[in-house]
Amino acid sequence: QQQVKQSPQSLIVQKGGISIINCAYENTAFDYFPWYQQFPGKGPALLIAIRPDVSEKKEGRFTISFNKSAKQFSLHIMDSQPGDSATYFCAAPRGDSNYQLIWGAGTKLIIKP
Amino acid sequence: NAGVTQTPKFRVLKTGQSMTLLCAQDMNHEYMYWYRQDPGMGLRLIHYSVGEGTTAKGEVPDGYNVSRLKKQNFLLGLESAAPSQTSVYFCASCPQRPVIDEQFFGPGTRLTVL
Known about the structure:
By secondary structure, chain A is mainly β. Chain A has strands spanning 4-7, 10-14, 19-25, 33-38, 45-50, 56-59, 62-67, 72-77, 86-93, 101-103, 107-112.
């Protein structure tokens, strides 16, 4: 069964530090790799996504790095802030589907003031 | 726009009871999904729909049924609830595109089965 492996399961970072979360995926027909952010009691919301005709995408303090040969992608949060404390999920397209995602298990990120 | 809404927000059931969760979206999206979220397991797809009148099974469909009689609504039914169905349920919708795009999530329904 296709999987997306996300690590670490939890992460504590000091305010101002760099938070890094990693995901590894299996074969997909489409190159679309999103990260979702979820606050307690809320639904997940898209944070940033990459369609890798490039190896990196940056939006403000958030960057996705993509390594196609290794089938891995990662989320970097620069200058991490307490407001970034949330659970983060990576996802990848399921097989040859152009409308289904398979999800990582999530990373609970805590930013210490 | 309200986006994706879910009813109810919380529910407690006894084993064997039935219930229906309602999802509504006002974005005219073709695709709709029901997920369950359990600690340490991410989001698992229960059922999905690619258009009005169509439904299909996801990863964990057993014990659930769905219907999409109207484009804007996607209903998830539990015919005979079991404690293993205690979870947080999320509905999502997505516009139809040539390639996969952003899924928009509702606020979730927290279900406890005693």
